[in-house]
Design brief:
There is one protein chain. By secondary structure, this protein is of the alpha+beta class. It folds into 3 domains: 267 residues, GroEL-like equatorial domain (GROEL, domain 1, Orthogonal Bundle); 85 residues, 2-Layer Sandwich (GROEL, domain 2); 156 residues, GroEL (3-Layer(bba) Sandwich), CATH 3.50.7. Helices cover 47% and strands 17% of the residues. The strands form 6 sheets. Strands 7, 8, 9, 10, 11, 12 and 13 form a 7-stranded mixed sheet that branches. Strands 4-15-18 form a 3-stranded antiparallel sheet. Strands 5-14-6 form a 3-stranded mixed sheet, covered by helices on one side. The protein is elongated and about 95 Å long.
Amino acid sequence: MEHDEPRTTDWLARDEAARQYVVDATRAVESLVASTYGPRGSDSVILTDDGKGRPETVVTKDAGTILGAIERGNGFVHPVAALFVDGLDSVRRGLYDGTTAAALLGARLIEAGVDLTDEGVHVGTISVGYAMAANRAGSVLDDLARPVEPTDRALLSQVAATTMTTDLDERRRRDYVDAVAAAVSGLAAASDDGWLDTDDVTVRARVGEGCELYRGHVVRRRPGAHETSERSRLSFDWSPSIDGVRTDVRVACVEHAIDVEETATSFGGDGSAGVTVEGAAGLAAYADAREAAIDSVAAEVAALGVDVLVVREELDDQVSRAIESYGVAVVDRAQYPKSDVHRVARATGASVVGHVADLDRSKLGRAGRAYEHRVADDKWTFFDECDGAVFTLVVGAPTEQSRSTHTALVEDAVETTAIAAMDGQLLPGAGAAPVAVARDLRAYARTVAGKEQLAIEAFADVCESLAVTLARNAGFDPIDTQATLRHAHATAGEGPAPIGLDVATGEPVDAWEHGVVEPRRVFSQAIDSAVATTEQLLAIDGVATPGVDLGRLDPQTEHE
């Protein structure tokens, strides 16, 4: 008796349909970031929500920022798209660069893998071939890489410049990269173990020109998030906490506000905890006792030799005035971000204490100069010429609206440049590395007897597609560029060549000589993340979505 073939339900996609479902999702994510690749990439506009759930418009050409903005909004509700983006997180969160390359590699490896599957190649064979290609690519990058000393400001400047793909005028770019390189090399010079803590480099942006580097920290203070009304903004104390410029200042850093009543008894009453007020006389006695307690605390702070008291929490106005009456400047609300008080401590050599009662002379720090300026709706307190390896870059953005964009741009450059300094290895940029890998893999594939050869050749094509995308975004014919770069690499000798694309002319160029370089880890991690994500998604041969019409799940339109 013959049995009927089991019928696929309306909510279950199998085999070819499931594989196409995966390809469509990853291709849609790729389409979100492909146009941003390279220095001539385009900006994207994302309508999303900020961290507090308020509507936000993000204009960027950074793939990590695009994916992050979408996740802050509705997120990637398509299950495969969500898995794919999660696989890119190791690049996006850890390296601050290479997210676009990882997304392009991953999506295209998946598509090529599905094509091979449809031709009869087993998924396991494809995964083995991809792993062989990735391992071989590592050897090629070993031969192509060059060392960089962590204090080599010239090379670090080239890394920073390559990272900054946003359109900048040449003078502004030069100012930015010089400051980034100086800050990173300063971190490296002070490091004993080669680890660079980029939390000790803060970027502040203002409207103006240039980019100043301060050895120390700039505390940014403003009305709090709960003070959103115009009245609150106007009532904020905009007067300078530090008059003029103080030199050779001793700094104390405290976490919590000063509360003279926190452990008070009844100010001379029966000794019970709290404050007891009975009648007008009791109220007057309470006020006198409180004033005396505040004055005592202020006098003790001044007696320690403190010039500037930095407090993370907000101080009561009466407490601040009492301390200032002894000649001690008060910088409270040092909490944007929350670690500001700790950065001041690391810069000045101070120790952060929980309460003012825990202060003594051994816990004080020193700054060569301290002063304050108002910048737009912020008060900036500068602790400059410090001994600690803590740096602040004050970036001059062209407009008020571009301050956040330029802050993120320089912050990413700091992170990527620090990776180069820590790892001590650079690769030529401008698409040179992926084309060199592609050339080697094609030769290597001919030495592989099994079907893995097909996966290795596909891997080579995908790597080369990065340079093609670079050319397309720069406005050049991608086919002509592909042929030109292949010829340039083929005639460059036996070893991998540092030949990439000059995005200004469309001609092949030696990336080393052109000053287009990137940390070795960026491209290596992009390959590793893409291969790992591809292996996971290629194994999907069924998608079950009860009650959901698969045809309506299109992340390319869901997240515009």
